[in-house]
Each structure stands twice: as C-alpha cells, then as structure tokens.
Amino acid sequence: MQALIAAFAAELRRHPHPSATTAAALLDRLPDTVPPPEAPMPEHLAGALAAPGAHPLTARLAAIAGRLPWLRVTGRDMPAGFAGRHAYCDITGPGALIEAPDIGFGAYLQYPETFYPRHWHAAEELYLILGGTALWTRDGVTEVPAPPGTLIRHAPFERHATRTRAEPLLALWVWMGDLDFASYGIDPE
Description:
single chain; alpha+beta; six-stranded mixed sheet; five-stranded antiparallel sheet; 4 helices; 11 strands; about 20% helix; about 30% strand; globular
C-alpha cells in the first residue's frame, strides 16, 4: 500500500499544477497501514490492470488491487445507465482504510461503453489516468480524450462527466478540501 501511495505522490510532483503538489504533500504524511485480506475484484479490473499502454503506476495498483474494498454503486440515486457500471475504492479519507481527515485517495474503474453523467462536489478533485482513454467533459470543455498519464483537475463544484468507449477507464483519484460527500450531485442521464 505504501509503495503505491509513495509512487503516486512522486507522480503528482511531476505535474506543474499547485494542487498536484499539495496532494503529494498530503499523501506523504499518511501513516503506514496493512491492506485487508483478499477481496473480490470488480468486473473489468483484471483487464484494465493488464492493458497495453497503461501508466507504470498500474503495476503498483495491481499488486494490491485484490486486497482493496472495491464498491459498486447501484442505488436509486444513480442514473440507470451508470448504476453498477463502475467501481471505486477509498484508500484514504474519513472512514477509509487509512483514516485521513484532509485527503481522500483511491482508485476508480469505469466500465466500457459507460457514461458518467455530469456531477459535482465540494472537494477539489484530481484524476491520474492509469489505463484507457476516456472522454472528459467539464464546464466549458466538451469531450476531450484523456489517455494514460493525463492529470485531470476539477475545481470545487465544477460540473464534469466521463464517457468510456470500448475500453475501461482506470484511474487514481484525490479529493482535497471539503470531503463531505453530502455536497455530491448528479444529473439524470
């Protein structure tokens, strides 16, 4: 777990955005932890971890992916075309594997041929794309392809959406600032 966190922090330092530097510093302060026992992995994860052209950090994630608490959101609050078509895990944050009040960090998997409708939240968000080229939309920018190695930033309450095509999207994410999920909103499809 610490090897993934340290490698992600080092990768963030390579990007010039001040938020990437802040996130790296917050990740550096996290305590050591032991991953939980083996857990089921979501559909499409094994393929995403082994995809050609993936970012080098994918190997670090692959080493612990089967021990992370992957969640699939299928509730009534998610649009029908998106519900159950993605998975994520919280590695750090309030109530996560590593308790951290000021930074949320984890992994995200979006299944092929899936549209994550416009959504927003109070937290500032960074995504480092590990595998798959998805189309990203945010306020004022429409469907820009983001291949592995791309760092994407969403400002607090900036509306953004993601569309995958034939390949799944695999990314590491960070939330900073207001981590309260109560601010999350999503448009219906």
